[in-house]
Amino acid sequence: MPTYTIASGDTLWKISQDHGVTLAALTAANPQLTNPDLIYPGQELQIPSDSAPAPEPEARVPNEAPRDLASPAAPVSGYNVTRAPPAPPQMVPPPAPGVAHGPAYKTVAYFTNWGVYGRNYQPQDIPAEYITHILYSFANIRPTGEVFLTDTYSDLEKHYPTDSWDESGTNAYGCIKQLFLLKKRHRHLKTILSIGGWTYSANFAQPASTPEGRQTFARSAVHLLADLGFDGLDIDWEYPADPKQAADFVLLLRETRLELDRYAAHLRLPSRLLLTIAAPCGPTHFSKLQIRDMDPYLDFWNLMCYDFSGSWDKHAGHMANVFPAPGYDQLTPFSADRAVHAYVSQGVHPSKLIFGMPLYGRAFENTEGLGLPFQGVGEGSWENGVWDYKALPPAGHQEFVDGNLLASWSHAPGDQKLVSYDTPQVADMKVEYIKRRGLGGAMWWELSGDHPVSHERSLIRTTVNGFMRTGDLDRTPNTLVYPMSQFENLRRGLE
C-alpha cells in the first residue's frame, strides 16, 4: 500500500481528493488516526489503492475568474454560482508552546443571557478552546446613565447542578459564575459585558448628551465589571443619528476608557481592561460616526457584517456578502468590504477590525431567486424568516456559493423559497479574506445558532481551523482578581 507524508496545510479531504480515494477509505486505512481532526505535518498515511477515482470537479460558469482579495477595486464579472462541496475542513493542531506561529487572531462571540431558556444554550456549551472573547449581552441603560443587568435570574441566580444551595454570604451564581469558571479553565478566554444592542440602543442618546450622564454610565459600567468578573466593556449603540450624537459617542467612549484605566491602575492589574464597540457596516450609519476620534479609546471594533438584506427589503438579496455586485444593487444592497475600507481610510489599523459573521440565515419566500421580488419570509427558528444556521439547509434544498461575492444560499428546484446564510465553504473564503486584509479576527452573532464544534459543519470550527493553519489564537491572559466584588465567591476567585 503506498504511503504519503502529510505536508503543511493538508487536510484529510484534500489528501483523499489528491489521491483519488474516498475520505472513508482513507480513514479506514489509517486506524492510528484516533482523532481525524488532529493531523500534522510529518505524519505518514497509508493510501488505499483500490478506491474509485476521484470525481471530476464540477464545471463552473464562465466569467468566474477568482477575485484578488487584496484589491478593493477588483471587478465582479457576471453573476457566479458554484455548488458547494460537502467536505468540512479538518482541525490543524495548535503550535507547540513557545513556537512562533504567525498572527494571533481574535475569535469573538456573543452569548445571550436569554439563550439559557428556550434555546437551552448554557455557558457550559461555549466552545471555550475556540473562542478568545465572549460578548455577554445585553445590559441596559437608565435615563440617568446607570448601566444595569436585564435578567438577574439568568445572570446571577440560576443554580446549575454543581452549585451549592448552602453557601453562606452573598454569592454569584447563574451565567456569571459559570463564565468565571470557564475563565479559570481557559486563561486565554476574556469576557466582556455588552451594553445596549438593538433593543436598548434608544437609551444611549439622553445620558450620552451630558457630562453627568456619561460619568454615571462609565462608573456604573465599571462597577458591574468589578462586581461580576468581566475583562472589559462593549458598547453596542445602534446607531448615533446625527453629528451631535456621534460627538457624544466619542465623549462616552473617552469617559469609559478613563474609568477603566483608573480602576485597573488602582488594582495594579497586569492586563489591560478592554473597550470595544459593535460597528455598523451600512454607509448611512458608519458615515455618521467620528471614527478617527473614536479609535484611540477602543481596543477593537466588531464589524456587523450581516443583515445586509432581509424582510424590510423588496427584493431577495445576500445578507452577508463580502463584495458587491456592480449593477446588481438589489442583489447586494451592502458589502462588508466597503465597510472595511471605510474604517481603514479613517485611520483604524486593520488588525483592530474584527470581521462579523452570522450563525443564522434570512429567508425569502415566493421569489424566483436572488435579486428578484419576494413576498413574505415564512417561519423561523425563533422569529419569522430567521433560521439558526444549525437548522440549514432546509430539507430538499441545495447549497450554492458565489465565489466572486463570497456569499452562499440554499434553494430547492420548484420551491420559491431561498435562504441567505454562510456555509463552511464561504467561512473558509472569509478566513482568506481576513488574512489578506490583515484584519484582527472573526466575530459571531450568536453562539446558540451554530452546530457544536464537534460537528463537521460548525462554522466556528471551520473558521478557527482556517486561522490555525497559518496563525494562532490570541492568548492574552484574562483577569481573575476582583477584590472589590460584592460577591464573596468571586472575591475568593471561586476557590
TrEMBL record:
Annotated keywords: Carbohydrate metabolism, Chitin degradation, Glycosidase, Hydrolase, Polysaccharide degradation, Secreted
Family annotation (PROSITE patterns): GH18_1, GH18_2, LYSM
Residue ranges of every copy of the LysM domain listed in the record: 2-47
Reactions it catalyzes: Random endo-hydrolysis of N-acetyl-beta-D-glucosaminide (1->4)-beta-linkages in chitin and chitodextrins
GO biological process, one term: chitin catabolic process
Annotated spans, Disordered: 41-91
GO CC list: extracellular region
Metal-binding listed as a keyword: no
Domain GH18: 105-470
Top-level taxon of the source organism: Eukaryota
Coiled-coil stretches: none
UniProt enzyme class: hydrolase
InterPro entries: Chitinase_II/V-like_cat, Chitinase_insertion_sf, GH, Glyco_hydro18_cat, Glyco_hydro_18_chit_AS, Glycosyl_Hydrlase_18, LysM, LysM_dom_sf
Enzyme Commission number, as recorded: 3.2.1.14
Basic and acidic residues: compositionally biased ranges: 57-67
Gene Ontology MF terms in the entry: chitin binding; endochitinase activity
Matches recorded under Pfam families: Glyco_hydro_18, LysM
Subcellular location: Secreted
Family: Belongs to the glycosyl hydrolase 18 family. Chitinase class V subfamily.
Protein name stated in the entry: chitinase
Species: Aspergillus homomorphus (strain CBS 101889)
